[in-house]
Amino acid sequence: MKLEVHERLALLTLLPNEGDYAALKTIRRAREMISFTPGEMEFYEIKSVTGPDGRPQTQWSSAKAAEAVKDCPVDEYTMNVIRDKLADLNKRKKLTEQYMSVYDKFVIAYQ
Predict the structure, then answer these.
(1) In 3-state terms, what secondary structure has residue 52?
(2) CB 111 within 8 A of CB 86
(3) For the whole model, what pTM was predicted?
(4) 70-71 and 2-3 as β-strands: parallel, antiparallel, unpaired?
């Protein structure tokens, strides 16, 4: 699946940190595929800064992000985990703008 920088960052926040052994092994592989390599961090000029509210924020070069979109293979288990999380956020009316495009790709386009 073709994922842009902001989508990859959003997905990393959705992946669970807990579960059974098999689930965590699968999620770890997904996290490794979605995460950024040191070369990508440099290319996209990704950095963490303190936002106006005092919380950390991630910034990157929009121009560089438009140049390269990564094709990240996502297995069926991870697809279901992400889709379920997004559907739950939507159901509870907790979906934010950060997740709009991944919601389109993982929930709407998947049906």
Answers:
(1) coil
(2) no
(3) 0.89
(4) antiparallel
C-alpha to C-alpha distances, 3 to 41, 108, 109, nearest whole angstrom: 15, 15, 14
CB atoms within 10 A of CB 48: 9
For the chain, helix, strand, coil in percent to 5 are 60, 10, 30
Phi/psi zone of residue 35: left (φ > 0), alpha (ψ -120 to 50 degrees), beta? beta
Can you tell me the distance from the alpha carbon of 85 to that of 91, in angstroms, rounded to the nearest whole number?
Answer: 10
| Distance separating alpha carbons of residues 103 and 94, to the nearest angstrom | 12
Residue 72 tokens, joined: 């990240």
Which pLDDT tens digit goes with each residue over 19-45? 999 999 999 999 999 999 999 999 999
